[in-house]
Amino acid sequence: MEDTLLWIVGVLLLLFCSLDVWYYLRVVVVLVRAWFLSPVFDITAEQSSSGRVVLHDLDLCHMNNARYLRECDFARFSLYTRNGVFKALRALGATIVVGASTIRYRRPLCVGEAFEIRSRIITWDEKSFYLEQRFVSCKDGMVSAVMFCKQNVLRSSPDKILQYLCKRKVEVPEFPEDLQHWINFISASSKALRVENQLDEKKNE
């Protein structure tokens, strides 16, 4: 009996030392919860998920900057489960990954503070979905942080996903001005990095 307990403790220690176990447990909880919530048929509809700042989120009594991005992951998992994007990805043999993200912090979320993450797909192009995710304090409704996220679709396209879900071609929503500025920045950065890479290759010849 003691040997069995020691073996179990050892396995658990190994898991917690080598994997972010809490992250994967949270993913399971989020997906199961979203599965039992009513589906959302409007692909661009805003969806809300709730949270609260707990002790392991803290950095000097407020939520650590990196935790915001982690919470956005969970909110997107819920979003894609309820609006059918995950289902479409599986059917099409595709996957989706973060291509870029930027977040602006406006006011700290403090320990014990409840908040909502309001996520929505703003628009899309040939390769990617563009999302906005807002952290809204339940205390006074202030937007504490806002993030743009570019989600690249691999082995398929946003258009094919939407045709699978809606059974028709869906018109692409207009790109807001602030989002377009961000996309221009990404394009300029990619161009500069490609030039830099070409220069490095020439030096190595």
UniProtKB/TrEMBL annotation:
<protein>
    <recommendedName>
        <fullName>Protein THEM6</fullName>
    </recommendedName>
</protein>
<comment type="similarity">
    <text>Belongs to the THEM6 family.</text>
</comment>
<keyword id="KW-0472">Membrane</keyword>
<dbReference type="InterPro" id="IPR029069">
    <property type="entry name" value="HotDog_dom_sf"/>
</dbReference>
<dbReference type="Pfam" id="PF13279">
    <property type="entry name" value="4HBT_2"/>
</dbReference>
<dbReference type="InterPro" id="IPR051490">
    <property type="entry name" value="THEM6_lcsJ_thioesterase"/>
</dbReference>
<keyword id="KW-0812">Transmembrane</keyword>
<keyword id="KW-1133">Transmembrane helix</keyword>
<feature type="transmembrane region" description="Helical">
    <location>
        <begin position="6"/>
        <end position="25"/>
    </location>
</feature>
